[in-house]
Amino acid sequence: MRFSKLFGKTLKEIPSEADTLSHQLILRAGMIQQVAAGVYSYLPLGWRVLRKIEQIIREEMDKAGGQELMLPALQPFEIWEESGRYPSFGKTLFTVFDRKEHKLALGPTHEEVITMLVRRHVQSYRDLPLLLYQIQNKFRDEPRPRGGLLRAREFIMKDLYSFHTNEADLDRSYQQMIQAYKNVYSRCSLPAVVVEADSGAIGGKESHEFMLIAETGEDGIIYCSNCDYAANVEKAKSVKPKLEAKNLQPVEEIATPNIKTIEEVANFVGVPTSHTLKAVFYSADAEPVFVIIRGDLDVNETKLKNLLKCSELRLATETEVKTTGLVAGSASPIGITGIKIIADDSITLGANFVAGANKPDTHLKNVNYPRDFKVDLTADIAIARPGDNCPKCNGKLLASNGIEVGHVFKLGTFLSEKLGAFFLNRNGTSQPIIMGCYGIGLGRLLAAAVEQNHDDKGIIWPAAIAPYHIYLCPLRLEDSKVAETTEKLYQDLIRENLEVLFDDRDESPGIKFNDADLLGIPLRLTLSPRTLQSQSVEVKWRKEKQAQLLPIEGITTRVKELLETARSEVV
Ligand SMILES: [Zn+2]
Fold first, then answer.
1. SS3 of 163, please?
2. Alpha carbon of 135 to those of 81, 161, 520: distances in Å?
3. Full DSSP string of 241-270
4. Is the Cα dihedral 300, 302, 308, 311 positive or negative?
5. pLDDT confidence of 570, banded at 50, 70, 90?
6. Mapping DSSP to helix (H, G, I), strand (E, B) and coil, where does residue 502 land?
7. What is the mean pLDDT of residues 127-149?
């Protein structure tokens, strides 16, 4: 490709709409262009990267036994009502009306459509297992599209769905798919970590995410320094520190003028926050919920939401708190009725807590569960913290940030039951098909790759997904020897099926080198009157600082070898 003919220009300035580093670099490199909030066009360079990622994914899915098909983006809205998943997607689901006023959804995911399809084609256990996948645009009306391709409203995704007769078979496919995903990331030279994850709106039993560790990642990860335990912070568990056993003391009322927060209460009484009980009020699908947790811990809203099985969870407003008869700043589980009380199990790990008295400027000492109050439900609803102990091995937990680049779910049978996808087993009995689903966002993977592979000059593409492999960079094209030699080398490289971006522009060395660095093409070949004087070409890897001079004689063969090694590099 001749740079002079390339559609899409590089930008010197940082575009104002770019809110993450990868977004800035991809825009500046002329790889994508925004059309509307969270909606992008891929320009030729960006599309080449995407196609390479797509091909690696396709090969790994095929190798794992997947069959590719294509489902429609337009889905009848009724199937979302039938599956019962409409409320959990809520406003994220794009809906449209056709000319007959018939409501349709733009697919945010395709479990419904594919289950309906499989329902028509699977009769008996002989038709299973099935692994079906597609690579297609998805639509989600994100409340806050951000990070360019990291959180877009229209995005390209590979989604595979698996259908099984029994749990063991699902387990097998699930493990195979985890391996296939690992292969995808390692072939893209992107080291991903597998973590336990929350199933979220997709639903289901078990779920794992694949994370690229990146400081800028918006997902928190908790992992063990000693064993392989790793989980999204939404899901992570930890061993909560247990306080020393004490004899239960009688409840005592104390005056706490103008003392409201847990820290203030603990300071005032002279105890650590772990000796207090914290009250938090939520509204779960408009129903008030009173949550009680040990003062040193915080509520994990994902765990709480899953426990309550609600679709909307938010902190209650001041008015809502007042309506329930509770006193903010001194709320207490003691003596309250008519409101659902959920407790974190940490309230059982200690004694003689300081808690609210449900009276202004008053707290209670020596509050003990279950002696002094009742709760409707006790469960782990706390945020696991770095420094806590590992739930698997008791080692120390650590934290980091990551970008989610893949998500796999064991769905089980809830969708096949809802949508009537059954099969006849060996005994001729009808059973619901057991399902799994597995997704990778391609654009997100592209952006995450940049987030992980760049320096202050630009992108550093791993060779396996680089838009081109060689940046052919002649300096002083007015020198006829440079012009002729480069042109010949360009033809030679193309004949060898090498992917070359030929910077044939009449620009200064500074501009050419800056663009080469910005675009991040792995290997730069520079020809100038100076290198030609010594019958050589300057060869420089984008990821390395030093360049080397190689003889121009046999350079095509040498470059081919270098690139083959780089492209087969896996991590
Ligand atoms: Zn551990």
1. strand
2. 25, 12, 26
3. PPPPP-PPPPPEEEE-TT--SHHHHHHHHT
4. positive
5. low
6. strand
7. 94
Q: What is the per-residue pLDDT across 360-374, written as a single tens digit (0 to 9) for each?
A: 899 999 999 999 999
* DSSP bridge pairs for 40: 34
Contact yes or no for 510/475 (Cβ under 8 A): no
Q: How far is the CA of 390 from the centre of ligand 1 (A)?
A: 5
Q: How far is the CA of 221 from the centre of ligand 1 (A)?
A: 14
What residues have their beta carbon closer than 5 A to ion ligand 1? 224, 226-227, 229, 390, 392-393, 395
What would the mean pLDDT of 549-560 be, rounded to a whole number? 95
Ligand 1 centre distance from Cα of residue 303 (Å): 21
Residue 558's H or E segment, with its range, is helix 555-567
Within 14-125, residue ranges assigned H as helices are 21-28, 44-63, 77-83, 86-89, 111-121
Calculate how far, in angstroms, residue 184's C-alpha sits from the geometric centre of ligand 1.
27
Pairwise CA distance, residues 41 & 149, whole Å: 10
Structure tokens at 40: 């992008």
- Work out whether strand 287-294 and strand 340-344 pair parallel, antiparallel, or are unpaired: parallel
Residue 470 near residue 493 (C-beta atoms within 8 A) = yes
Report d(CA 103, CA 411) in Å as an integer.
27
Cα-Cα-Cα-Cα dihedral of 190, 193, 194, 195, to 10°?
-140
CA 338/CA 326 separation, integer angstroms: 11
63: its two tokens? 């190798």
Distance of CA 490 to the CA centre of its chain: 40
Question: What φ, ψ does residue 525 adopt, rounded to 5°?
Answer: -110, 120
Cα separation values, 175 from 111, 148, 181, Å: 20, 32, 10
* 27 Cα distance to chain centroid: 21
CB atoms within 10 A of CB 327: 17
Distance 31 CA to ligand 1 centre (A): 42
pLDDT of residue 387 exceeding 70: yes
The candidate with the shortest Cα–Cα distance to 366, out of 378, 377, 379, 357, is 357
- What would the pLDDT profile of 12-54 be if each residue is shown by its tens digit? 888 888 888 999 999 999 999 999 999 999 999 999 999 999 9
How many Å apart are CA 320 and CA 286, to the nearest integer? 10
Q: Both ends of the chain: CA-CA distance in Å?
A: 29
Side-chain half-sphere exposure of 334, counting CA atoms within 13 A: 23
Determine how many CB atoms are found less than 10 A away from the CB of residue 413.
19
pLDDT (tens digit per residue) in 520-542:
999 999 999 999 999 999 999 99
CB contact at 8 A, 350 and 271? no
Predicted TM-score (pTM) of this structure: 0.87
Q: Given CA atoms 258, 372, 298, 300 in this order, what sign does their dihedral have?
A: negative
Per-residue CA distances from 127 to 67, 113, 119, 123, 423 (Å): 14, 18, 11, 7, 9
What mean pLDDT comes out for the span 432-458? 95
Which position has the higher pLDDT, 461 or 18?
461
- Cα(200) to centroid of ligand 1, in Å? 25
Q: Give the pair of three-digit tokens for residue 299.
A: 């509520």
Of the candidates 246, 248, 230, the residue with the CA atom closest to the CA atom of residue 238: 230
